[in-house]
TrEMBL record:
Biased composition (Acidic residues): 946-956
Domain Glycine cleavage system P-protein N-terminal: from-to ranges: 15-433, 600-712
Protein name, UniProt field: glycine dehydrogenase (aminomethyl-transferring)
Organism: Corynebacterium doosanense CAU 212 = DSM 45436
Catalysed conversion reaction: N(6)-[(R)-lipoyl]-L-lysyl-[glycine-cleavage complex H protein] + glycine + H(+) = N(6)-[(R)-S(8)-aminomethyldihydrolipoyl]-L-lysyl-[glycine-cleavage complex H protein] + CO2
Documented EC number(s): 1.4.4.2
Protein purpose: The glycine cleavage system catalyzes the degradation of glycine. The P protein binds the alpha-amino group of glycine through its pyridoxal phosphate cofactor; CO(2) is released and the remaining methylamine moiety is then transferred to the lipoamide cofactor of the H protein.
Residues with PTM N6-(pyridoxal phosphate)lysine: K690
UniProt domain Glycine dehydrogenase C-terminal: residue ranges: 766-887
One Gene Ontology CC term in the entry: cytosol
Cofactor(s) listed in the protein's UniProt record: pyridoxal 5'-phosphate
Self-association state and partner proteins as the record states: The glycine cleavage system is composed of four proteins: P, T, L and H.
Regions of compositional bias (Basic and acidic residues) in chain numbering: 957-967
Source organism superkingdom: Bacteria
Length: 980
């Protein structure tokens, strides 16, 4: 395949690639090569080059690709969904759909690791946490999990870590079937004994880590869980409750009933069905469990002026630090969907949400009062109706009438009411069961389970009364942030490339978005055709025999791949193979995923050039050969280098009987040029939110498909609804990892579009331009900031590591200082301190044009000059412009200016900043440590933002005072104790 600079034109590839033909040629000249082919030949080891190009269809134009998607969408049958089972009909307010889900400022934002430029998305996520805390009645909630089934699995893991002596977990048989399937197998993977039973009849036995109770159950029935919770507590275990958040507007909060953990899915808060996802699950916990809660946690700290500021709390739990000791392997959350759900709550407010809940419940009551055979007396939105031997017949009749119902079993039909349901629907549905007319149902939520306290009491949920206000609130938060719609996000290892609008806008088409994940195949032909094509294309690009898109994040793809390896060994009788070799430079999720797959982590050293230390690898293989299950390697390496020993590494592991896991996070440097399945990989996950253009959305959605060699196909993730959770699966099949067969299917149109619009040549061209961009930056910056690692011919892969350690020693300026100063130049920071402390890892991607790269280079060289002034003794670090960065508009315009440098130098250090709208961060540098010592993870009251300066003590008082706010009890209980 010959790689050529693209012609300026209207094809998608020309729109996707940043540099045009002239810019590409100029950049090649700077790097020292006369063609893209020559550069790629020099950078990639010959041993990894693919044998044949992927067999992909010819590239389509954007218009034709959308027409093809429209054709597939038309094959789906959209019925009014009354199916339930954890997925509910909901209405996304148009102002939120257009303002958040379809707005590039929100969907292209990155995970808020640089909090000063992420205050808008952090506020939205803090609203989400506060919403969950108040609804569930527990003081700490995370900023979203991946789906309800894996959230329950995380709850089981949390209970196991907390109650170390127990080895049994009890799952309520009333949980949704997909929840039981995933949670049971995840528990068994970490060697917990699983019992699925009717918990309402009492608990039996000891040695329990905990119980998971459904509230309501999958048939809609509501049972007071208080007795079960008291029973498990008396045995030393913990109680987790799986619940529907809308029901908690009417039901007593699980926290008030004694629950330790509450989990669920916030999908019905305005997030479309999306054929199964992405949806934001949640977890809330008691104060004593806050240090072990998985996933991300948004907290409140203070900035340099003492003003409240948001940031991710307890970041020492991040996997790249704790690795195999991490609380979970979760790296990608569902931030965009959590933001959508939180905006839904802000828009409707507590009274509006309660009206929706009461209306849904009222319609369910009317239906139940009109039909014979209702199974349960207490329910919220789901009515189970006995119809002996006729369940499927009724479901089929309903489909003909335009309704999707659930056949719970041969004798029971489930009818679950959602937000768009009407009285006419009640009449039509009742008629299917032989009812002549409908009657008004009497109130059934009575007694102990009826909520008697207010929810969503924080003022943020009562301030928005009109669409105008909502539109402006969304815009106000978005304006606080830096996302890809404003600037390059040069994050190494995270591939913040263009998210093609031609694919993005299709995800909210009703024919895709309004399909229930458990709709029968007769209604989902278009979805399945799209998914089958995408899986085949990904298999072609990676060189694997088969791909499954079920994992809904890279972390879940890792877990699925490692579980496949583990089950393969067990099926072959090699039960002793439980050691996973992981290079010291690997992504942190690798080690955490290995632990969840019940593998023992053994670290392999890194050589001086950043590659795997082959001598140390030999020693580890010699020591653990009989126990060796796998090695996990990232390629190109986490150091941004194409290691020429990768085939040798794979062979050594294979010769010892192990399998090779190739982490696909850096596939952006290989797609179209090299296939991990050909150069030694047995399994890989892919990050579709990186290489294949699903947007990051402020920290999710992500999709992490897993590809495997032919021998591992039987162990790919199983359909959770075809899995018997009551018995451990046989060793020769795979296990489900998410709630639905196709995971976060609702965003798969995006990678489908990207591949369809590029084809094999376009994929290779995009990869070549990514390599060119990284080497161009390396060439332009290496005199000012040494490039730490290079590979063949002194070249890097698709990213490069800039080494600031010598500059730090000479000046006191840290890599973190440079990140903060870059904000004043209008840039998101590169990856900080990973994989090497004191460095910055930069990845420009193929989507940035030369002018944007030059703007970043100008900023870095300007900062380098500021550092040199400190080195030369012209200014002390403590008084330097870098030390106080970033600068807010309030500081620049304020009367109080005592710095030796000018306001202009602080805010407009280079002339080009005057030629475009200036971004000002809304807060000054944030005190990270303060926020962990004084953990506040819900929205502070409005008076907290009235502080002037020296207000840290006042914020601490606010943290304590919030303990009296309903739903946030205990949020500041440890505010003054730095040991907590």
């Amino acid at each position: 395949m010959t790689l050529q600079p693209v012609s300026d034109g209207v094809d998608f590839l020309a729109r996707h690639l940043g540099p045009n033909r002239t810019e590409t040629e100029d950049m090649l000249g700077v790097v020292g090569y006369d063609s893209l082919d020559a550069l790629v030949d020099a950078a990639l080891p010959e041993a990894i080059r693919q044998e044949n190009a992927p067999e992909l269809p010819a590239a389509l134009s954007e218009h034709v690709a959308q027409a093809r998607l429209k054709e597939m969408a038309s094959k789906n049958v959209v019925l009014k969904s009354f199916y339930g089972q954890g997925y509910s009909d909901t209405i996304t307010p148009p102002v939120i759909r257009r303002g958040v889900v379809e707005d590039a400022g929100w969907y292209t934002a990155y995970t808020p690791y640089q909090p000063e430029i992420s205050q808008g998305r952090l506020e939205a996520l803090l609203n989400y946490q506060t919403m969950i805390q108040e609804l569930t009645g527990l003081p700490i909630a995370n900023a979203s999990l991946l789906d309800e089934a894996s959230a329950v699995a995380e709850a089981v893991g949390l209970m196991s870590r907390s109650v170390k002596k127990g080895r049994r977990v009890i799952l309520d048989e009333r949980l949704h079937p997909q929840v039981l399937a995933v949670a049971a197998e995840r528990a068994r993977a970490i060697e917990l004994e699983v019992e699925i039973t009717d918990v309402t009849s009492g608990l039996v036995g000891e040695d329990l880590v905990g119980v998971v109770v459904a509230y309501p159950g999958t048939e809609g029935d509501i049972v007071d869980p208080t007795k079960v919770i008291e029973d498990i507590h008396s045995r030393g275990g913990l109680a987790a409750v799986a619940t529907d958040p809308l029901s908690l507007l009417l039901l007593k909060s699980p926290g008030s009933l004694g629950a330790d953990i509450v989990v669920g899915n916030s999908q019905r808060f305005g997030v479309p069905l999306f054929f199964g996802g992405p949806h934001a699950a949640y977890m809330s916990v008691t104060d004593k469990l806050k240090r072990q809660i998985p996933g991300r946690l948004v907290g409140v700290s203070i900035d340099a002026d003492g003003r409240p500021a948001y940031r991710l709390a307890l970041q020492t739990r991040e996997q790249h630090i704790r690795r195999e000791r991490a609380t979970s392997n979760i790296c990608t959350a569902q931030a965009l969907l959590a933001t959508t759900a939180s905006m839904y709550a802000v828009y409707h407010g507590p009274e509006g949400l309660k009206r929706i809940a009461e209306r849904v419940h009222g319609l369910a009551r009317s239906f139940a009062a009109s039909v014979p055979g209702v199974k349960h007396g207490q329910f919220f939105d789901t009515v189970a109706v006995t119809a002996e031997g006729r369940a499927q017949e009724i479901v089929d009749k309903a489909a003909e009438a335009g309704y999707l119902l659930r056949a719970i079993d041969a004798d029971t039909v489930g009818v679950s009411f959602g937000e768009s349901a009407t009285a006419d629907d009640v009449a039509a549905l009742a008629a299917l069961f032989g009812a002549q007319e409908t009657v008004e149902g009497e109130g059934v939520l009575t007694g102990v389970v009826k909520r008697d306290d207010a929810a969503l009491t924080h003022p943020i949920f009562s301030q928005i009364h009109s669409e105008t206000q909502m539109m402006r609130y969304i815009r106000m938060l978005g304006d606080k942030d830096l996302a890809l719609d404003r600037t390059m996000i040069p994050l190494g290892s995270c591939t913040m490339k263009l998210n093609p609008t031609a694919g993005m806008e299709t995800i909210t088409w009703p024919e895709f978005a309004n399909i229930h994940p458990f709709a029968p195949d007769s209604q989902t032909a278009g979805w399945r055709e799209l998914i089958e094509e995408l899986e085949e294309w990904l298999a072609q690009i990676t060189g694997y025999a088969k791909v499954s898109v079920q994992p809904n994040a890279g972390s879940q793809g890792e877990l699925a791949g490692l579980l496949a390896i583990r089950r393969y060994h067990v099926a072959n009788g090699d039960t002793q193979r439980d050691v996973c070799l992981i290079p010291a430079s690997a992504h942190g999720t690798n080690a955490a995923s290995a632990v969840l797959a019940n593998l023992r982590v053994v670290v392999v050293a890194t050589a001086e050039d950043g590659s795997i230390d082959l001598a140390d690898l030999d020693e580890k293989i010699a020591k653990h050969g009989e126990q060796l299950a796998a090695i996990m390697i990232t390629y190109p390496s986490t150091h941004g280098v194409f290691e020429d020993t990768v085939r040798e590494v794979c062979k050594k592991v294979h010769d010892a009987g192990g399998q090779v896991y190739v982490d696909g996070a850096n596939m952006n440097a290989m797609a179209g040029l090299a296939k991990p399945g050909e150069f030694g990989g047995d399994v890989s996950h892919l990050n579709l939110h990186k290489t294949f253009t699903i947007p990051h959305g402020g920290g999710g959605p992500g999709v992490g498909p897993v590809g495997v060699g032919a021998h591992l196909i039987p162990y790919l993730p199983a359909d959770p609804l075809s899995t018997d959770p009551s018995a451990e699966l046989p060793g020769d099949v795979g296990v489900p990892v998410t709630s639905t067969k196709y995971g976060s299917a609702g965003v798969l149109q995006i990678p489908w579009s990207y591949i369809a619009m590029t084809g094999a040549e376009g994929q290779a061209n995009a990869t070549a331009h990514a390599i060119l961009g990284a080497n161009y930056l390396a060439a332009r910056l290496r005199d000012a900031f040494p490039v730490l690692y290079t590979g063949k011919n002194g070249l890097v892969g698709h990213e490069c590591i800039l080494d600031l350690r010598a500059l730090t020693d000479a000046s006191g300026v840290t890599a973190a200082d440079v990140c903060k100063r870059l904000i004043d130049y209008g840039f998101h920071a590169p990856t900080l301190a990973f994989p090497v402390a004191g460095t910055l890892m930069v990845e420009p991607t193929e989507s940035e044009d030369r002018d944007e790269l030059e703007r970043f280079i100008e900023a870095m060289l300007s900062i380098r000059a500021e550092i040199q002034e400190i080195i030369d003794g012209k200014v002390a670090y403590e008084e330097s412009v870098i030390r106080f960065a970033p600068y807010t508009a309030h500081v620049i315009a304020g009367d109080d200016w005592e710095h030796p440098f000018t306001r202009e130098q602080a805010a407009f250090p280079v002339t080009s900043l005057r030629q475009r709208p200036k971004y000002f961060t809304p807060v000054r540098r944030i005190d990270e440590a303060y926020g962990d010592r004084n953990l506040v993870c819900s929205c502070p009251p409005p008076e907290a933002f009235e502080f002037d300066t020296d207000s840290a003590d006042e914020l601490e008082d606010v943290a304590r005072d919030t303990s009296d706010v309903p739903g946030r009890k205990g949020a500041g209980a440890n505010a003054g104790d730095p040991t907590k």
